[in-house]
Amino acid sequence: MRKSSSVLVELLFLTTGAALAQNNFPKVETAPEFMYIRTVPPGNAQSVNCAGGGGTIAYNLTSMFGLAADLGGCKVFGFLPSNSRLSNKITGNEFTFLFRAADYHAKQ
């Protein structure tokens, strides 16, 4: 009985320490990304592809709340036929951005 109680108490201390260690959180998080966008113009025009990269950067104010930015850019490849109405209106690159609040809930 005494041995099983001491094992139980030791296990309790180990799990409590692991739970308390969860309070450490990174202030800044980053993640690289690859992006591919396929654009199909209206009409009989050929589609245009855009490939590139970007990333996410997040700044955590607390362990539950942070601010994040998702940024990306890509280079257009592929082509539109020269007789297309849109052939002179396609630029050589695209840029995407998203700014958001990052809300972290405890996972159970």
The SS-based structural class is alpha+beta
Question: Whole-number radius of gyration?
Answer: 25 Å
Total individual domains: 1
Assign an overall shape.
elongated
Order of helices and strands: HEEEE
Strand order of the largest sheet: 1-2-3-4
| Distance between the ends | 32 Å
Mean pLDDT: 76
Report the total helices: 1
Portion in strands = over 45%
Helix content: 10-25%
Main beta sheet: strand number and arrangement? 4 strands, antiparallel
Protein traits:
108 residues; four-stranded antiparallel sheet
Task: Write a short abstract of this structure.
The protein is an alpha+beta fold. Helix content is 18%, strand content 45%.
What this model shows, in words?
- With 108 residues, the chain is α+β, with helices and mostly antiparallel strands.
- It has one domain.
- The protein is 18% helix and 45% strand.
- It contains one helix and four strands, in the order αββββ.
- The protein has one helix at residues 2-20; strands at 28-39, 48-60, 65-77, 93-103.
- It has a four-stranded antiparallel sheet with strand order 1-2-3-4, with no helix packed on it.
- The longest helix is centred in the first third of the chain and has 19 residues, at 2-20.
- It starts with a helix and ends in a 5-residue tail after the last strand.
- The model has no long low-confidence stretch (mean pLDDT 76).
